[in-house]
Design goal:
GTP-binding; 7-stranded mixed sheet; 2 domains; alpha/beta; Signal recognition particle receptor subunit beta; Rossmann fold; 9 helices; single chain; SRP_receptor_beta_su; binds guanosine-5'-triphosphate; binds magnesium ion; 312 residues; receptor; 16% strand; transmembrane
Length: 312
Amino acid sequence: MSTLQTIKDLLEASLTPSPTVIILGLAFCLVAPILLHFLYSTATPYTTLPSVLLLGPPGAGKTALTTLLERGSSSDTLDGPVAKTHTSQVPSSIELSVNSDDPSTSYKTNLDNESATAKKFLLVDTPGHPKLRASSLMRLNAAEPTIKSSLVSDGGAKSKIKAVVFMVDAAALADGDALPSTAEYLYDVLLTLQKRFHSRGGSRAPASMPVLVAANKLDLFTALPAALVKSNLEAELGRIRAARSKGLLDSGIGQDDVDAGEEGDWLGGDGSEKFSFAQMMEFDVDVDVIGGSVIGDGPGAEKWWKWIGERV
Ligand SMILES: Nc1nc2c(ncn2[C@@H]2O[C@H](COP(=O)(O)OP(=O)(O)OP(=O)(O)O)[C@@H](O)[C@H]2O)c(=O)[nH]1
Ligand SMILES: [Mg+2]
């Protein structure tokens, strides 16, 4: 009986408006949310995975590669569902993990079964259509390029872009028609990264940005080997560079304006006749060209996977 009485007393005391109860209640209401916030915000550093941005002209095989890496097996890639892709219209991201002890571990390895430590990152597949490129390019413009990740639970988290994979169709490049449009896109990507280097605010230089030109479809015998993809792209980028700076001169603006314009639009190191990817090193943009294939009986995608693994 006495315990019942105590409980009754306690209840009565807590329900009677007394200054102590009010103050304690108010304090709890104010402090608890703040405490909970700190508890959760420190406990989940997971919200920002690094990301790798996948760019390139339409039909290069970006979505095919994304699907291949997501499935982690090439068993059904010959004429299976992976081959049936369609033109992408919105960016999409998938979560992948590399073996952080050994980035050369195949993408086919299921890291859940291994004792190795897995490092997670997002692969962001973008649409290659010219009308849909602007938003991908805009993301690269910031000193610390980030991408809004729809995968992360709170939806609004920004993921830091660690590397760019620019995929090209090496078979389409062989007949020359696709070269100007492909190079035009690559020019804009590299120029955006170069401008970002110049636009750094304060003393902190932006982190270097590795770019992989992935020469895809090397399973086709008509495809250009990676070395030719590289030299053809470099030659075409040089042509675009010359044409764009000539366009500025021809448009009748004064010499002073040209100087300002050149600084903005001239890709790579100044003064050199020929363009080469090595000139981008000056702006901390490190370009590699590696051949591979997503489907068919080709060199596969392992070299690209290793390149990505070493950079996330
Ligand atoms: N032979 C061959 N075909 C490939 C390879 N990779 C992709 N393809 C084919 O190329 C076509 C286009 O691939 P997608 O992945 O849709 O191209 P995408 O880059 O995503 O194109 P957009 O979404 O329009 O920007 C598909 O029919 C693929 O099957 C490859 O390594 N070899
Ligand atoms: Mg696509």
